[in-house]
Amino acid sequence: MIRNVNTDLVAGTLGLLLSLTFWSLIDPRMTHMSAVFPTAMIGIMAIASALLVIKGFSRAAERGNLFDVGSNVRVLATGLFFFGWVIAIGYLGFFVSSVLVMSLLALYLALAGRRVSPARFALWVGIVACEVAFFYLIFTRLLHVLLPEGWFF
Length: 153
Description:
two-stranded antiparallel ribbon, flat
């Protein structure tokens, strides 16, 4: 466990590294319109990260403990859920895998602190399905981004 770290500087540096990585992965064969969304998102992320790095060198920089709160097992399990989600998208499609994995992740994390009734879990699945449907429609209808298809769509 790392203690008393300049969290602004760490987060900003990681954000800049991720921005650079994502930028290098943009396919040069993409059309101009196809590249607008990822380029804009990477640019926004890079600007926000650069601002965090600048703030990290100021007096207002936040200092704190990294990985100090919570269970390391839950952090690892959450990472595995997301890894499984990425794998499942290729087989089940974006919508089905997102609803399935995010619902199970919510249940897993909630069970760490309380009991969850089947009715409450069913409500959560409905909420997750609505959120995923919202993003699915935004990306496919408004932004014309093709998402992986599977069982239903």
